[in-house]
Amino acid sequence: MPLKQISVFLENKSGRLAEVTEILGKGGINLRALSIADTADFGICRLIVNNPDKTLKLLEDAGFTAKETDVLGVEVPDRPGGLAEVMKVFNENGVNIEYLYATLEMKEDKAVVIFRVEDLPLGLKIIEEHGWKGVVEV
Q1: 20, 32, 46, 84: which is deepest, by most CB within 10 A?
Q2: Looking at residues 4-14, what average pLDDT do you find?
């Protein structure tokens, strides 16, 4: 089962990320993972949160452009080469990874990595076939 990710589009302007985190904090939203990618003019803040629906509403009500996307959360062995093993299997099975980032959570010698893949059903199938633990909530 996929995780819900919230992507927020931000102008590259001082204080915009602070606004987002303040809105979420006041709204009782707990950040579980965060990634920021930027260009000269704008950035994309990707969030995994405890309440995606409420997060989307809070951000839209505050005038931010935000959208929800399905992503995969996978427990990866927390040791050298752990991520490489998962990446190799995805590659061998034709799973195109658009981007990935790690969460703030650790689970019993495992790191939780968020994958945005081109073919979500194929990614879910590979996780299941290889006995990896998919994460439905962080």
Answers
A1: 20
A2: 92
Residue 129: how many CB atoms within 10 A of its CB? 10
CA distance 57 to 43: 20
User: How many residues are recorded in the chain?
Assistant: 138
Q: Which residues contact 51 (CB under 8 A, 6 or more apart)?
A: 28, 29
Task: Enumerate the β-bridge partners of residue 74.
Answer: 113, 134
Phi, psi of 121, deg, nearest 5:
-60, -40
d(CA 58, CA 27): 7
Residue 14 predicted with pLDDT over 90? no
Indicate if 81 and 115 belong to the same structural domain: yes
Mean pLDDT of the chain: 91
Domain that holds residue 15: 3-70
CATH of the domain at 60: 3.30.2130.10
**pLDDT above 80 (res 68):** yes
Total domain count, the chain: 2
